[in-house]
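CO-FOLDING WORKSHEET

Operator: S.A.
Ligand of interest: NAP
Run index: 346
Mode: holo prediction, single chain
Checklist:
[x] sequence pasted
[x] SMILES validated
[ ] output reviewed
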Amino acid sequence: MDSVIEVGIVGGTGYTGSELLRLLARHPRVRIKVLTSRQEAGRRADALFPQLRGFCDLSYSAPDPEALAACQAVFFATPHGTAMSLAPALVGRGVKLIDLSADFRLKDPAVYQHWYQHEHACPELLAEAVYGLPEIHRNEIRRARVVGNPGCYPTAVSLALLPLLEAEVVDRRSLIADCKSGVSGAGRELKLGSMYVEAADNLKSYGVAGHRHLPEIVQELSAVADADIGLSFIPHLIPMIRGMQATVYARLSRPDVDLQGLFESRYRGEPFVDVLPAGTEPETRSVRGSNVCRLAVHRPGGGDTVVVLSVIDNLVKGAAGQAVQCFNLMFDCDEQTALDVPALAP
Ligand SMILES: NC(=O)c1ccc[n+]([C@@H]2O[C@H](COP(=O)([O-])OP(=O)(O)OC[C@H]3O[C@@H](n4cnc5c(N)ncnc54)[C@H](OP(=O)(O)O)[C@@H]3O)[C@@H](O)[C@H]2O)c1
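OUTPUT RECEIVED:
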């Protein structure tokens, strides 16, 4: 019989941490041993999240490096800066880390410092960390001690552009990603912009001059293209709770290419990427609560612009679901364990 894997979750009161609880509650090999919150220490998780009643009887505790070191895997669902402060001690004790923040996504510590405005605490671990997008790095994730789980926008954008860049059928210097996210992308912490009256009945762009997700998209897609890429990435906030769409535009350099065939063959066998039939459009509600990225590829008017529509649930394939997918690879579980459920719609 397969052994039980004891895991810790740091940041179990946030939106991605509570989503990890929801998903891991159904994982046959996982026992959550440590669940942290500084503000809710001593309180039961199902008192905060009644949807977990009957699935999770754990209480929060303040983060304790000793307790976390006794786990086999620790998920960090915390703001950037937290995972890297504890990572060396935990990895040194043989714990595998999956960090949902940006601490282990960017290979170059100088790039990290530029975008996150503080020095990286453990560049040596950064060097060995693997970017947790299985559709690019599946085999490295299997062997990783530290996984930097991708951001939500980078997941939606990268999966839309990957087949085009690998096949070298677009001008890689003039890519455009026009993206929209639901408000849960900003986390559960109290912020003016996330309040109902501020976010409802409104559409707004943000980070147009430069958003922190840009460097990780550029890092990964430049490696795929084996050359620098040029990307205009424009995020928007829309008044919904979960879900995001990346609408990606690129100029075709090989107009004869069979785009539908290219996408279907690139993602054949991928358990969590669904290429829709030609002529259709995905909706965010079709992925709500599921780990699927649903894509459609178009060539409006038969011209030389390719448009890829890519939808994910920001909290699942964009965060906690992808983290569980990486965990499954790292611990030799079937990749779909705890993730093989259809979306919740309407
Ligand atoms: N929301 C998304 O859609 C999304 C998608 C992809 C990636 N991410 C990334 O995932 C991470 C978590 O996001 P979230 O939306 O779940 O955030 P959140 O809702 O604000 O939750 C943050 C959690 O971290 C804990 N925390 C905060 N500071 C901490 C510290 N210094 N030490 C230990 N614990 C700390 C908080 O609990 P206490 O303060 O009680 O300890 C809370 O449980 C972020 O890095 C975010 O960028 C989020």
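REVIEW:
The chain has two domains: 5-128, 153-314.
DSSP finds twelve helices and 13 strands in the chain.
[x] output reviewed
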